[in-house]
Amino acid sequence: LPGSVRTQLREIGQSLAETRHVDSDMEALRRRHFAILDHTLDAGDDPLPFKGKTAARLHDLLAEYSADGLAFSHWVIMPNHVHLITKPCKYDSIETFKLTWRRFKARSARYTNQIMQTKGSLWQDSLYDRWIRDEAEHRRWVKYLHNNPVKARLVERSEDFLYLQ
């Protein structure tokens, strides 16, 4: 991400971290954070780590991934970012889930770096995560994932995008 966007997202993230309770201002900040990130990523600027064989192999990894109770039901691998929806999972605490998520990020970064023959961090620190609370919300997020390559003008129809589950 461009430095100015990273700064903006970091500032919003700090404000969110300092918020002690959920209120309309916090939700507005979360939506702003997501909108900035979404708009920037859809612009499709370099770097583009998830293209060609990297996207294909990551697609296979996500289809097969099942570790620490974490598996994925839906995803879209865009050229410069990935959206994931996990299958329902149960953990004894949010901390356990965060640890499991960090393990997935580390494993998938090592795997992707091997494919790309690169080193270093892959996933950004700030991410937009959301608990899906009911079936209607799940349908909205799946629709969002399916529309992502169309909105970014990579394909005319989501069915034509190769790296969508």
Description of the structure:
- It is a single chain.
- The chain has 165 residues and is mainly alpha-helical.
- 53% of the residues lie in helices and 7% in strands.
- The protein has a two-stranded antiparallel sheet.
- β1 (72-77) and β2 form a beta hairpin.
- α3 (53-64) packs antiparallel against α4.
- The protein is globular and about 45 Å long.
- The two termini are 25 Å apart.
- The model has no long low-confidence stretch (mean pLDDT 84).
Structural category: mainly alpha
Low-confidence stretches: none
Which strands sit side by side, in order, in the main sheet? 1-2
Please tally the helical runs, counting DSSP H or I stretches of 4 or more residues: 5
Return the average pLDDT rounded to an integer.
Answer: 84
The coarse overall form would be: globular
Q: Could you tell me the strand content as a percent range?
A: 5-15%
**Main sheet makeup:** 2 strands, antiparallel
Total strands: the figure is 2
Helix fraction by DSSP (H/I, runs of at least 4)? 40-55%
> How do the helices and strands follow one another from N- to C-terminus?
HHHEEHH
Distance between the termini: 25 Å
Q: What would you report as the Rg, rounded to the nearest angstrom?
A: 16 Å
